[in-house]
Every structure is written in structure tokens, then in C-alpha cells.
Amino acid sequence: MPDSSTEVTAAGIARLAGVGRAAVSNWRRRHPDFPKPVGGTEASPSFALPEVEQWLRDQGKLAEVPLRERVWQQLSGHPDGAVTALVHAGCALLLVRDRPTAWLEMAAVSDARMAEVLPVALDHVLTNRFGEGRAVPTPTASALLPSVPLLRATAELAAEAGTRPAFDFLFGRQLDANPRQYTLTPPGLAELMADLAQPAGDAARRGGGSDSRTVLDPAAGTGSLLCAVGRPTALYAQEADPGLSALTALRLALHTQGSGADAPTLTARTGDTLRTDAFPGLTVDTVLCHPPFNERNWGHDDLAYDPRWEYGFPARTESELAWVQHALAHLREGGTAVVLMPPAAASRRSGRRIRADLLRRGALRAVIALPAGAAPPYGIPLHIWVLRKPGAGRPPAPELLVVDAAESEASGAPAGRDRLDWPAVRGAVLDAWTPFDAPGRREPVEERPGTSRAVPVIELLDDDVDLAPARHLPPPATGGDAAELARVRERLDDTLRLTARLTPPPAVPGEQARRPVTTVGELARAGALHLRTGSGAGSGTAPVLTEHDVLAGTGPSGTPSVPAGSPEEEPLLLEPGDVVVPVVGGGSVARVVDEATAGAVLGRNLQLLRPDPAALDPWFLAGFLRGTANNRQASSYASTATRLDARRIQVPRLPLDEQRRYGERFSVLAAFEDALREAGRLGGQLVQGMYDGLTDGSVAPE
Hints:
Elements: E1 7-9, H1 10-17, H2 21-30, E2 39-40, E3 45-48, H3 49-58, H4 67-76, H5 82-98, H6 100-107, H7 111-130, H8 141-144, H9 148-161, H10 163-177, H11 187-196, E4 214-217, H12 224-227, E5 234-239, H13 242-255, E6 265-270, E7 284-289, H14 319-329, E8 331-341, H15 352-360, E9 364-369, E10 383-388, E11 399-404, H16 422-436, E12 452-456, H17 457-460, H18 482-502, E13 517-519, H19 520-525, E14 529-533, E15 544-545, H20 547-552, E16 579-582, E17 591-592, E18 601-602, E19 606-611, H21 618-625, H22 628-633, E20 635-637, E21 642-644, E22 650-652, H23 656-696
Parallel strand pairs: 4-5, 4-7, 5-6, 7-8, 9-11, 15-18
Antiparallel strand pairs: 1-3, 2-3, 8-10, 9-10, 11-12, 13-22, 14-19, 16-17, 16-19, 20-21
Helix pairs in contact: 1-2, 4-9, 4-10, 5-6, 5-7, 5-9, 5-10, 5-13, 9-10, 10-13, 11-16, 18-23, 21-23
């Protein structure tokens, strides 16, 4: 298939050029030479990718399309759909990694001949890696023919970045492009669940490694949980969706070593796990599971006499308790299961008998409440249940560990996606779990008010069997004692005095003469500034400046969203003088990066404007970015959000000295705004502390 057959939508064009979709619509209206649609519909047309690239290049809006973008556009425009194309690309990457010489020989022939010889080579690699009955069928020659140009480009990307990072990039783009189609398990959560499943007393617990073991994920989804397991001997995965099952199998294969004695066994199957278990009779050391929540059609009417319901037959509304018992049924004695659960499963009356039996028999070992934003649905503080298969001759565990990471200081920034300090959350949870799970423990576990407690099982076996951690924890220290409140009041006094000093003087009327203006887009084309969009990608310890941080005026609080080694763009590190604005829903907000924020990674949904200090003053630029009228004319509106196209924002053409005069004034206004924000925070802390102190008796009413 010639490269000219690859089509791209308006959204794809916006991604190539680093602009919003509204800008693409404007280009189509304003430029008669903009490429004509070659497909799609009237409401959602598609365009020939080479024509679009050439037009963007001619207009100075695109220097060169990165290889990864070219490969993604070929994949997303595949005639058989992106999932089929991604499966073909994953098979080719597995061949490139495991049989590089064979790939080079096949890549030297014509496209038609390559499509003919590839199935035999792919079948050999897939059978060697997955065995028979695998989730990844061998593509036929006719199915592969349209994919050959994509496979060649994918191999080129693998040569540049590596086979695993190449697939991770393409798979990640597919997930980002279809957010409602997939339920994701974020990397930080997957690592925490894998840590909790490690054998008791494992010295490598905090290093991300573990003793070799067999691991099953019965609701594998995108494979994140199994990818987080260190040094397994065997991995088993089952997923109901055939396309996702194939993609997950390929992801796992590329995340583990190829053929050889040291390679873990990898078995992936397709099917409805609860109705049609692909691994009957299998027992493993560990089960990790992020099941679908709130399913009514999970098989209640068909599975009434299933032997898995050892702890009770789940109600129709308790699908999560069916998954819990499925996990226990696949554990060897003493094996550990870690299951992500909705918080309602800990307290719904319909599940109280099963919860009670799990406690009586010692199968449920811990219930951990996570901060909201840990995983979809992001507005709900989900729970992790840690379970252990009871063994013959072992007395039931007398205690249940409850941990409330949702209320701990480790949860960091306010609830929400991409705002969690995962290393801190992980540390808080493991600091409670590790001593509780210590082999041969005899001493009582330290109680941490508001965070963790080992609760005697007898206390939980009441009429409700409510396992919500917050209900069984002693209240945290309120900070409402008189001495602490006095310190808060002193800081508030200092902040209010600073606010008074920074209050702007009376406004002086200015001349209304019309000034010549330019736009941010024109300044970028002239080289006066560089415009970039953040992704939150990165590695190492550098924090991420998130959208929430910019809106709230706080320090960087996020963690990188892309694992190290991914071919996603290099982390975009902030420098002093950079100007950052939110892309979506931010309104009139702009932030000038200072020395304290410099070095952080630019997060998602943020645009960076890096002015040339010889041409533009950053505070001058930030001030005009915040103008209400400016934001109004540069924003596009959808049904649920406002999107800012920074290229359309207008800035007066002024000499640098005049810019600095404006910049100084804008800088003082920003300091005044920060002081007001801090005063509001301290005032709220003082008020709540007084309420808490008066109600708990640590403050007298006089």
C-alpha cells in the first residue's frame, strides 16, 4: 500500500502541528490551498497525510514530522482499524526482537512478497512465545498486505528506540485516543499492588523486585498489573475482549525476555472469566486483579452452584465479591491476591455475609483506602483488598489491617487524576503493611491515628461487617491545639500585612490609542518564542508541574506518566522565565516559572511559551496572556470545556524597555495574588483548627 493512502483526521493534524482543533478549522476556512478531504464524512473528514505534511511545512507550521508521529498516523489510518494494525505491528516487533536476521531478510523483498512470507515466520515466533490456543492468531498474507508499509516503519522506530518502547508508545497512543473504550490501571497503582503481593518478608519489596513466582490476572485489561511484576516464572492472563487480549499478550511478551530457559512462561487467553474460566484447576502464587465494577450481568443466574463460591454465593449486585472468590480459588495455600475494589464493596449490606466469612476464615488480610484519582473512576477513593488463601492447620488471622491513604498526608495534592504523589502513597501503605505481614510477628503493630490500625476481627463481626478503613481508625491529630493555632495566626498576620503592602495603587487612566499588535503564533514563527505542549512524560525523580498546580499556584506535585525507556518525547523541563498556561478550562491563568519550579517536567494539558529574553519580557507576555478579552477571542468552546489556543493570543508590539515596565507591574500583581491565596489558605486552616480544637477539647471557649 503506498504511503499516500494513509489518511489523517483534523485531530491528527492538530497533533502534528501542536495546535488545537479549532486552529485546523480556521486553516481550512482561511487558506484556499489547504488539502481537500479524501475520505471520512462531512462532519469528520480525513485528509491525505503526505499532502497535509507538505502544506504544514510550506506554511512554516511543521519543520519535520517525527518518525513516531508518522508511524502513529499510518497505524491510526489503517483500513482495517487501529487495533488490527497494532496487533500486526506488535507481531512484527516480536519477530524483530526474537529473530532479527529473519526480519532483515524479509524486509529486503517487495511488499507483496513480504506479505507472503511473513505468516510462516510470525507463526513460529508466536507459537514459541505463547504456545497453542493463544490469544494472538497468526495473521494471513492477505490481512498483512495493507500493513507492510506500517511494519517497515514500525521496525525503523524499533531500531531508533527499541522494540518494547516502540510498542508501548503505539499502544499508549491507542489508549489515549480511545479513553472510554479501555479501563486503565495507572503505573503507580500497578506497582503498589505488585508490591503488596510480594512474599512476606521479601527483602526486595521496596526495590520493585520479588522472588520468582507464578502470577495470574483474570481481568488483564491492558496488562499493566502483570507488567509490574518482577522476575515471574509464569504469567497467566485472561481478557474478554479479543482485540485487547491480543494487544495485552503482545505487550507482555515484549516486556519479558524472548525464548530461552530463563524466560517466564506466558499464557494469554480470551474469554469471559467468570462464565468461562480459561484456567480451570490452575493454582498460582499470586493473583492481581482490577475487575470491572458494578456489573449486573456477571453470570449470577448461571453460576449458582459454582464451586468457587466457597465463602458464599454473591448477590447479583456484588460482582466484585465474585471476582474476589475467583481469585482465592486460583491461589495455592498461603498465596496472595491483591484486588482493586470500589469502596461500596466494603459496606454494602448485600455482601456482609461473604465479608464475615472472609474474616472468620482469615482470608481477608487488609483493606486499604486510596486517595481519589488513583484509577478510574477518578472521583472515587477506591480500595485495595489483600487476601491470602487459608491453609490446612493454620489458625485464622486474628486481625485485619485497615489503612486510609486517602486521608494521609502522603496523598499530596487535592484529589484528582495525575495529582497523586505515588511514591509517598506507596511508602505510607507499605510502612503499614510490611510490619503487619512480617513472618512470625508476635508484637502488636503500631497504630497510626488517622492512617492505619490492626483491627481485631471480633470487632468487625457485627450486623453490618463494615470494613471501610475510616470507620475503624482513631482520629488523626487535629493540629487544633492552642500552640499550633497561635503559630497559624501569626503566619496569617504576616501574610495579611504583606497583602496590604502589595495592594495595587489606584488605577491611573491610560491612553486609548490603538497599539500595533502581533500574535503568539507570529512570534513563534519569527523565533521570538518557542511554543510547546506538555505530556507529563519523563523518568527519574523530577516532579511534574500539573494543570492543578498552575491553577492553584502550588509547587510541582505530579509524577511522570510515561515509564523510562518509552520513545515518547523527551521530558520537557521547565526553565526560569518560561510562561505556562493551561490548555483546557483554565480561563485567565498564566504562570511565570521561577527558580523554585525550574527543572520540573511540564505536565499534560499545559502549554509552554519560552520567550527569547532579547525580544520578549516573560512577565509582559504572561500579563497579556491573562487579559479577559484576549482569552475570549483565543478560546474555542465544546459542550463541556473551554480550550485555549495560545497561538491566537494577541500581544502589543512594544520595545523591550516598555515591555519591562509592564512586566514589573504584572509581577507585583502576581505577588499580590499569591499573598491573597496564602491568606485564604491560612485563614481556612485557622478556622477549621478552631472548630476542631473547640469540639475535641484542646481549645477552651474563653
